[in-house]
Amino acid sequence: MSNYKTMISLHSYNGTLGAAIGDVYGSYYEFQHGPKTPKHEIRIHESSCFTDDTVLTAAVADYLKRKTSGENVSPTQVVQAWARKYADAGYGGYFRYHWLYNDDPKPYNSFGNGSAMRVSSVAYFANDLKEVEELATEVTAITHNHPEGIKGAVVIATAIFMAFNGASREEIGNYASKRYDLNLDYDAMMKELGHGEEICQVTVPQALWCFLHSDSFEDCLRLCLHLRFDADTLAAIACPIAEAFYKEIPEEFILETKARLPQDILAALESVPKATKYCLEQGHSPSLENYCLVFAAFPLGGKRENANGKSSANLAFYSANLNVLRKKRRSGGMNSDHLSKRKTIAPVEPRQFRLSAISKGRNQSLPS
User: Fold this and answer.
1) What is residue 189's predicted lDDT score, i.e. its pLDDT?
2) In the chain, what are the domain boundaries?
3) Has this prediction a pTM greater than 0.85?
4) Contacts of 367 (CB under 8 A, 6+ apart)
5) Angle value at C-alpha 271, between 268 and 274, nearest 5 degrees
6) Which of 10, 50, 128, 172: disulfide with 247, CB 3.0–4.6 Å?
7) Where are the extended beta strands (E) located within the chain?
């Protein structure tokens, strides 16, 4: 449910803004309760501002753009440059005092939630699930090289990739629930969480829960803000999934956020490509069903036996076929006759969707 009449389609604005919107709106509500019910509109406040979440999201986007254009740069070099420019954005202690100004910075075995809040652009630069994992690991391991830190980044980037490319809420939930326990109690989270819990093992499941129990981008943001927790980072993690899934954002959120971003940060966020890889904006090719089977048949970058007990082809085989389809579509080789109505990705009664149902179905042939 949305209280806003004017909605902007994902393909009507440049780049991706989900993380920045979550960060800016969450900055005011950090460690205090925000609006809870649908009748309570989410309003910007005078003190709302961007933080380290937005700066590092922009840094990763800038690095990936430069990397894909052939420039010889390292993620450490790019992230340090951005973070030094915005040195007072609110970084974690070890990042700021030990890593940021070190001439030869090393990862510090962190599993803080900072690894998951900066990776949203990975989902748009990657061409397949294997590349999602590779890029997310690359931009994360420069600081958060603990397995839990990398896991948080990979799971969030994958969830965004799946959402953008047409996966259902249940498919995303099944994928995520095999990596985190998502049977969370919202009221308990509000009462129990506070400072000292800003780690992937806590924040990533919360962010996934907020998305999976939302019915719009606004609702996802509202659920994040009402938790008495690290609201800006929580929303910066959850809102990019909602942005990719619902594919529309209230215009007010976009305008208010843009007004608070420096031009270089906005330019980096707007440089993120949004050319759909395996789905079309108005519908999808029947061949996209094969893409859904890729999620069902493979763990990230791995192999799995099919129903006949025979080893399935490598993920690259499917990716190659899908790239052929993409080239066909770009060249005009796929017309309306090839399109079928896109699957409904939001349940009619999303509030009745519960993660317990996902947990019961963990053995189904959904994302591994």
Assistant:
1) 80
2) 7-270, 288-360
3) no
4) 162, 167, 171, 172, 174, 175, 178, 295, 296
5) 140
6) 10
7) 7-9, 248-250
